Amino acid sequence: MDKLRFVLRRIVVTAALATFLLPVFGSAQEQVGGHSVPVVRPAAWVTDSVCSDDTHAAFHTCAIEAAKTFEPPRTVGGQPNLSGIWRRRSAAHESLQSHPRTLDDFGATSIVVNPSDGIVPLQPWAEAQRRYNRSAYIHHNAICRLDGLPVTMYMTGTYQFMQSSGYFLVQGEEAHAYRVVPLGNQAHIGKRLKLWNGDSIGRWEGNTLVVETANQNAKPWLDQRGRFYTDEAQVEERFTLIDANTIHWQATIDDPNVYTDSFTIALAYRRSTVENFEIWEEACFENNDLAAEMFMNVGYEIYPGITGDEARRLKAAWELEEGDR
Amino acid sequence: MSSSQFRFQLTAALFYFLPLLGAGQDYSPPRTEYGDPDLQGIWQVLNTAVWDIQDHPATLGVPAGQGVVIDGEIPYQAWAAEQREENFKNRLTDDPETSCKMVGVPRITYMPYPFQIFQTPDQIVFLYEYVHSIRNIFMNSIHPEGPIQWWMGDSRGYWDEDSLVIDVVHFTDQTWLDRSGNFHSESLHVVERYTRTGPNHMLYEVTIEDPEVFTESWKMSMPLYRRQEENGRILEYECYAYLGDEN
Amino acid sequence: MNLRAKKFFVPALCSVIGFFILRSAETHHSIAAQFDMTKEIAIEGLILEMEWRNPHAWLQIEVNSEDGQPEIWQIEFGSANSLYRRGWRRGDLPVGAKVSINGLPARDGSRVVGAENVTLPDGRTLFAGTGPES
User: Fold this and answer.
1) Do A285 and B136 touch (CB under 8 A)?
2) What is the CATH number for B175?
């Protein structure tokens, strides 16, 4: 056991050292003198911006100010033009909260901007449930499920945004995920229709695209730490260009079954600089049998999601059990 | 026959035949904000092509249907005709749709689920309800060099007057053209034409070419219908999520 | 040729560099759910074929086990699209070539390796760099 700890400590230390040697988002290898070395590439996105995103809290504050005076480029229809290929900045899919670089994680600062401590305000029973989730269930993305909202907006790294006067379309290449948001004064679909990506309706408020999402089936997680929500969750997103190459995105998640209060996450999308980039087909389920089998073999099950009713029952039971201690 | 009767009959004949000369082309579709024919909206077929693209009688769970193959026959090579029969016998297990895989082109168009078309000048995107399949049609550009195998192929589009023409290559050999075992190889080459024929109708024509399987190219044709519901959406059919816990 | 499937703890520097073959900024699921990140595995075999697929491309190699019987091992790469974008195509696979694989062993004990480094006999890394033309 001591030997194991010694070796694992060496691994962690080496990994920490490696952060100084490697570019931020991984690299290809090239042959130099007969062995592989990482290729250091310049960032594939515009780095020049009015707001840096070294921490998301600082970016969020800066972006809200910058949005007040920025006059965005517009589409033919007169709306701020969000179209293009965008890189999301942060490995929030690993954890919404600050987490370090490890062998398994790229690491990131917390994208939770409200509350200001950067901690996701899970109710106590839900924190216990989260820990159980993480050990018992496989993350939805590993078995090719859709990501829901807000996770669709940070699960993958490269996005294509397209818009018309009637629709806003978000596409990620990974597992051919997409969401389409009708714009204008639409009504949500009926409450009994629960969808993986829920039902989204968008509208313009000044230079900000506001998107309300309901009707989720709550089967995806918020991050790989097992943070979750119920089918009663309401999500409000806001997309605002703050300079020609940066979109400020924020999402407020409201689910009183799980969280002590609604909370807000925010991150930056930077415009990609890759020439002539085309989104190509990335099938997932069609060739994922072996990986799925490997997850099941080590005991993971598929996360079943959770309804508002189930959450309330679990909470009551947990508080009965734990409340008196 | 008097000359006035003759003139009447001639005029009647012209009225009868004229629309056939330019079927679908006498309708001038509205334009997008970018000036292209507007194909946008939610569309769906109303036929039974997904079951069998040729004429087929009904059987339990399967409605009868008139085929969508022009001239009725599919020009299989001899070995391929036998393979098709074999596929038919094993269709309940061997059809990739039964294991919830993507179904390729053109079958995705005539699946019994709606799809949405979204247009910009450089790219047209088809969004399908069936397992959130999506096709990015890159306009006026060339295919990447193969060999590449994608379930939905690689699509490159251009406008031919008011018709959207899409050239599709780079397929796997894993998809079937319908549920009855009509199939293709990796060499499949599909050319689609989408032409608005009225406010709520579109003509979908497909040319299929595959030198490994067919003796010559052949065509399908069918109408697409605009979904009329207010507040309509494409929803989700996440087929493989319904398959069971091991998936 | 003997199977060399050693499981041993190594200073993880090479695995940190190497594991980026398997991952990228576009990453999805946790590697640790599938592979044992505390260990390294090294095997040698002959290339049989490769499935050029997404979300992962799979290299199949034939390895001689200790009792001389051939075993098929699957080596998990990143997506086929990442290879296509760098110019690699199916025909570039040197079928029959002997390769040395370093990677992460499967948590479930199956004959699957999460590739970190796939080296040809002349020392070149399989599918390295920007493509076969460069």
Assistant:
1) no
2) 2.40.128.20
* pLDDT given for residue A39 in this prediction: 46
* Position B190 in a domain: yes
Q: Is C125 inside any structural domain?
A: no
Q: Do A180 and B234 touch (CB under 8 A)?
A: yes
| pLDDT of res. C78 | 86
| Contact yes or no for A103 and C58 at CB 8 A | no
- Taking residues A256-266, what's their average pLDDT? 98
Q: Looking at chain B from residue 120 to 159, which residues have their Cβ under 8 Å from any Cβ of chain C?
A: 144-149
Q: What subunits make at least 3 CB pairs under 8 angstroms with B?
A: A, C
Please report the ipTM that was assigned to this predicted complex.
0.88
What CATH topology corresponds to A56-271?
A: Lipocalin (2.40.128)
Q: For chain B, list residues with pLDDT below 50.
A: 19-24
Asked if the Cβ–Cβ distance from A291 to C34 is below 8 Å, we say: yes
| Residue A229 C-beta-side C-alpha neighbours within 13 Å | 32
Rg, C-alpha atoms of chain B: 20
Please name the residue that has the structure tokens 């330019």: B22
What pLDDT, on a 0 to 100 scale, did the predictor assign at position C16?
A: 37
In a domain, B18, yes or no: no
Tell me if C61 is assigned to some domain.
yes
What is the predicted pLDDT for the residue at A34? 37
Residue C20 belongs to a domain with what CATH number?
2.40.50.140
Mean pLDDT for A195-207 is 97
The parent domain of residue C98 ranges over 6-24+38-119
A278: its two tokens: 């085309």
Position C19 pLDDT exceeds 50: no
Q: Is the pLDDT of residue A6 over 90?
A: no
User: For B180-209, b where at least 16 C-beta lie within 10 A, e where not — what string?
Assistant: bbbbbebbbbbbbbbbbbeeeebbbbbbbb
The residue of C34, C72, C86, C119 whose CB has the most chain A CBs within 10 angstroms, and thus the best one to mutate to test that interface, is C34
Q: Is A144's CB within 8 Å of B240's CB?
A: yes
Domain ranges of chain A: 56-271
Residue-level pLDDT at A275: 87
Contact B168, B157 (CB under 8 A): no
Under 8 Å CB pairs connecting chains A and C tally to: 154
**B123 residue type, one letter:** Q
